[in-house]
Design a protein that fits this description.
The chain is of the alpha+beta class. Helix content is about 35%, strand content about 30%. About 25% of the residues are buried.
Length: about 220
């Protein structure tokens, strides 16, 4: 009888230990899941805050560009970051505006490219100033969130892109080529345009690790192609 009771006690203790072990594991798993969920929520709202902040800076640049173009003879309007901005960036110039009604793009074009500037607006990567002869290459981020150049893939041959220069002039460019290239292919910056005004929009394809190119030519010069 005692042997049976002892065996029962051993089995009961073993069961109790297993139960406590499983209970502890489930509690840990629950706490870990809740913590991870909170961190993901925090990260989501933080990234949305950052996107919104950069959009506000872009809007400031557009407003500054429009005012400068209307009331000043300065051909290189600049936007200098103030002490109220949370990040310190070098001063830079806004050399024009890009507008693509088809996909809701309306951003300033920053004079030079850098990781920090690309977070604010599309940047001049290579080539002449807006609406001058040559191939103006404009780089923009693809965040997959409908901002900046995230929707370039929606464009089609024949769609129009408007470029405003610092004199307030607007030229319409018609897309004639859309393709992907490897990330180490820089043939897109070629300036041999035979006297035409062209633009090349460049962004990343986040899935294939390639570059998406949109090439367009000034509508008045399409007959020269």
């Amino acid at each position: 009888m005692n042997q049976i009771l002892n065996e029962y006690a051993v089995e009961s203790n073993s069961f109790s230990r297993k139960y406590k072990s499983k209970k502890g594991f489930f509690i840990f798993q629950f706490v870990f899941s809740i913590t991870l969920f909170i961190l993901l929520i925090f990260y989501y709202f933080y990234t949305q805050y950052e996107y919104k902040k950069q959009e506000q800076i872009s809007q400031k640049l557009i407003n500054n560009f429009n005012i400068t173009s209307l009331y000043s003879n300065n051909t290189t309007p600049s936007f200098i970051r103030t002490s109220t901005d949370s990040q310190e960036l070098p001063s830079f110039s806004v050399i024009g505006l890009i507008e693509i009604d088809t996909i809701g793009v309306y951003y300033p074009i920053i004079s030079e490219v850098s990781d920090e500037f690309l977070k604010i607006a599309p940047c001049r990567f290579y080539g002449p100033m807006p609406n001058q002869v040559g191939n103006l290459c404009i780089a923009g981020h693809n965040y997959n969130n409908y901002k900046f150049f995230s929707r370039l893939k929606k464009l089609s041959i024949g769609d129009k892109i408007n470029i405003y220069d610092t004199s307030g002039n607007k030229l319409a460019y018609k897309i004639y080529k859309k393709n992907e290239i490897n990330s180490d292919d820089f043939s897109c910056i070629n300036q041999d345009t035979n006297g035409k005004k062209e633009i090349t929009l460049i962004t990343c394809n986040n899935i294939k690790n390639k570059r998406l190119l949109i090439q367009a030519v000034n509508e008045e010069q399409i007959s020269l192609l």
